[in-house]
Amino acid sequence: MKSNAISATGAASASPRMIAPQALEADENGRPQLVGGKCASCGALSFPKAEVCSDCMSDAVRPQLLQGEGVLYSYTTVHQAPRGWRVPFVLGYVDLANGLRLLAHIQARPEALRIGLSMRLATGVVAADEAGTPLATYVFTTPEERHA
Amino acid sequence: MREVYVAGTGIIPFAKYPEKTLADLGWPAVREALLESRVQPKKIGAVYCGTALGGMLAGQRVMKTLGIMGMSIVNIENACSSGSSALAAGWLAIASGQHDIVVVVGVEKLTRFNGGMVPLEHEDWEVNQGVVMPAVYAMRAQRYMHEWGLTARQLAEVSVKAHEHGALNPNAQIRKRVTVEEVMAARPVSDPFTLWHCCPTGDGAACVVLASGAAARELGAATVQLVASDITSGLYTNGYRDMTWAELTARGAHEAYEMAGVGPQDIDVAEIHDAFTIAELMYYEAFGFCERGAAYSFLRSGASSLGGSTPVNPSGGLLSRGHPLGATGVAQAVEVVRQLQGRSGAHQVEGARLGLTHATGGGISGLDHGACSIHIFKR
Fold first, then answer.
1. Which of A79, A95, A100 sits opposite B189 (nearest CB)?
2. Which of A91, B76, B142, B225 gives the lowest tally of CB atoms within 10 Å of its CB?
């Protein structure tokens, strides 16, 4: 699997650093794709990519591109968080059709959100480190936001 | 397995004590429990100290202050279940015949972190992505509200009940009563939670002395027996999970009931892990105090209030008594033992004979919770 660099959108000034660069790749159009894992022995999927399969203990877990769409299982607007996080922010659990559930930042207006909504993968700035460098990661957005 | 009795109890009022050391929080609770039990220090076979963030050798730091050393001292970390896990270790030491008398202490000083939320483990994937404990419980609450039609206003009533009880408990960190309106209007933490939906951070310590049947009879302390001791861990999945059902607690409750030979209808008083309002409702269901989806009706009926059929958290619970992590499980044990002995004053549950404690927690990716420890006490 080729590893294209992924860059975050929405950065104000300094170029953002990815929180978990190993979890993202860019496709041929530069759009983000999630990288998880698939066990070569039993086929179990993981995100993030597991070092050892939690279903069969095989250590042959290969990188696996995951779909970028899912359904919002639950979410909350977080108003209080450790220093560095840009409050308020929305966190949610997004269910992928392949059975994985991901915790992710949801970048959408909270009033546009509801449980069961279809979500799509993007990237976004969510925090800053102690030096002020913006930190970006995978996020999910609503259909409304991605057409805006 | 041998019978295990509680021979003595000790607790300090939960509060913020930034000027005190961990050892200075711990020793008064141990001293009180030892004096109450009339155990001679040289008869102590082992000390089990629960602390989540107290640092190395917490038990030694507490015990050396009292000048009681030389026995086995083991420090136990299991997040919010650290104290109750220490209790389980103490139970096993007596039940197995290894020791006749042990000391179990839970102690925590959260003011060392200068306020704010409890720091989580940064090796954890979701912590690294920004998850905080209030958000995890808040997402459970949002999903529960979605599935069962619970409203934010109804959820706020859990906090009102907790603080009604805590106002009667001299050892509670927060002794202020609150109204639904005050809960709703407080500073938002993680929707639907405001500050009053969340347990406070603070400092505390509690201690119980456990004894075998023979040792307890010799001390004249064979009144409250520990009839079930259970520790379970969460099941791992990176897939879907019903976040409105406290699977880990339900599994632990089943094991503990079986061990004690009792059922939910037999429980007279319960101290459960209400770190956030939604947790109390979900645990009513997990313990079988009511049917699934019926937790709010159970609360609303008054069944879980003082004077009800199954008073839950007469101490005020984590929401009001406070939640210094490692101290919580032992404080719950002190509370239930004193309830069964009729010593709880203004927040006494009349005629309580069978009581339950429950401490669960630890936020790590892929688990309901890290640990869950449940104990059942019988007079």
1. A79
2. B225
